[in-house]
Amino acid sequence: MKFGILYEMQSPRPWDGGSDQRKFAEALDQIELADRIGIDYVWAVEHHFLEEYSHSSAPEVLLGAVTQRTKNIRLGHGITLTSPRINHPARLAERISTLDVLSGGRVEWGTGEGSTAIELEAFGIPYDEKRAMWEEGAREAANMMALDPYPGCRGAYFTMPCRSVVPKPLQRPHPPMWLACARRESIRRAALNGLGALVFGFVEPEEAAGWVREYYDIIRSDACVPAGHTVNANVAALCGFSVHEDGQVAVGRVASGFGFFGYGLGHVWTFGEHRPGRTDLWGEFKRAEERIPFHPEQGAIGDPATVTDQLARYERAGVDQVILLQAVGHNRHEHICESLELFGRDILPPFRARDVLAQARKDESLEGHFAAARDRRARLTRYPRSEDIPVIRAAARQEALRDRLVPPEGEIGGGLPMLHESPGAARPGQDSG
Prior knowledge:
The chain is an alpha/beta fold.
């Protein structure tokens, strides 16, 4: 079993002019430390307009800085919002590929729909269409990284002509793809699409064991047809984390921070009424804090023996990665670093040693299933034919010829052929939605 760390970039009030700068500087120091002690992954979320709860609106910039401060840790988008109304697929492909080049091939590409009203309404995304937007955006961005040139698409939510999208990622055909999951249904969907499952809801190890079994049953079946051009068979589970030689100190250091995390989660997804620029989320939480229960036994929180036992339960459940969540609320930077140092020294080494053998056995047992899934995906891919690739005249040449010559069909200025259409694309005369 591998380990990751997650960053929401929470910045609770009260703010001063340097609040965000300190949070990002501390995150970079923590990630550099995590790389040094042998943590395998760092995950950065993408959220927009979620004041206090998440200021990680440009994770590609944070992860770009991480490339220059680390050597081994894998850089996870946890996740990119793949609706074309938020991130155009070409811009996604360019950013993911550039990050992969800068990092020496260390990118993990998480994808997702988004779900908060604050975000979806701002970008004009109807709730009942967000899944279709995710699917189209993720599939086409993967095609842009894998195919040269990208043949173009006339989709339900975006249209683009044939272009060569550059740079290409170092990891071919593209970095491993994941899907943000919160329920069993979405874990099934990840498996059906050959995607890693990023389980961002807190789940007990024994419950996770059933989810893992079902996920891998689907991965091994003919129902698995990758959304990308390869299969990333992994289940990662989020887990609250704090470790200290004195277990009560470990609990006390993070109780308020996790209380705020839970309260903020409910505010943005479930019960909140938010006034942009006016709602004081930290103040509301502090007024309600005494009524909010904190259950440290549900996370990996306590002394080293307690934390080791809890993490071993996830390992026995077949979870591939535990993502440790610690940097939330006003949890202190020095306490986070102390936890990481102790984890790296006293807890991590036996897990790493067992993971080397487990990963080799897993790869060997699944390779035939991966090959079959890739074949199913390849049969659905329309690769560009040389004779269908259009000639694109420079703008000045088009202007010079405009009054004298109509460019032939297939060139800019004439028709724009799309070499394939999205399965959900509207036909002529139909409403595109």
